[in-house]
Amino acid sequence: GQNIDQPTEMTATEGAIVQINCTYQTSGFNGLFWYQQHAGEAPTFLSYNVLDGLEEKGRFSSFLRRSKGYSYLLLKELQMKDSASYLCAVPFSGGYQKVTFGIGTKLQVIP
Amino acid sequence: DGGITQSPKYLFRKEGQNVTLSCEQNLNHDAMYWYRQDPGQGLRLIYYSQIVNDFQKGDIAEGYSVSREKKESFPLTVTSAQKNPTAFYLCASSTPTDGSYEQYFGPGTRLTVT
User: Fold this and answer.
1) B96: closest chain A residue by CA
2) What pLDDT band is residue A94 in, cutting at 50, 70 and 90?
3) At a CB cut-off of 8 Å and minimum separation 6, what does B74 contact?
């Protein structure tokens, strides 16, 4: 089976940096996704990591360490609009297009 | 513009009635999915379809049914057998892009059954 763990809630200050962690267990690794979801809206794609290391995309970066079953999403220069849930997701091994989503980390950015 | 549409955004039904949620995509994606999201829980897969005229049960298929007669359409029926149908329902589609299967989501339908 597949299991994903991430904190349920975090609070950070506008302009600061926040790191959202995700640990996963899967029988076969096919990459890891991060999605952003504002309240009442659909998730939107942020990043996909398949190799170890850090991938930077503007204010957002995503890191993967496959040997540890670990990833994090780094958000820099936080803005109020970054208040949202951040979902970690892992594709099924073998079922090439199925994805298991974590519960999501609800981030609140405060002034 | 390509995308996924779901309608309606809000839907209200009486207990005991079946209700069908629509999902249409013009992205030419092969795979389509239905998820359910409840407060404090992650997205849970109800059904998915990888090609036309074929679909598989997800983790919580009981009380739901789907059809995939056209590539563009993947409607979900919530039957009276579903014990707790009130939830936020999300439809998604995907296709391999650079080795990943990024999922594109529709805006969702919030179903309330009383």
Assistant:
1) A97
2) low
3) B23, B25, B32, B33, B34, B49, B55, B66, B67, B68, B91, B93
- Closest partner residue to B101 among A8, A96, A101, by Cβ? A96
Cβ-Cβ contacts under 8 Å, A43 against chain B: 43, 90, 103, 105
Contact between B94 and A41 using a beta-carbon 8 Å cutoff: no
Return the DSSP state at B100: B
Q: Exposed (0-12), middle (13-18) or buried (19+): which is A29, by Cβ within 10 Å?
A: middle
Residue of chain A whose Cα is closest to the Cα of B95: A97
Report chain A's mean pLDDT, rounded to a whole number: 92
Which positions in chain B touch A31 (Cβ < 8 Å)?
99-100
The pLDDT of residue A98 is 80
Instruction: For chain B, give the mean pLDDT.
Output: 91
Q: In terms of Cα–Cα distance, which of A17, A9, A29 is closest to A86?
A: A9
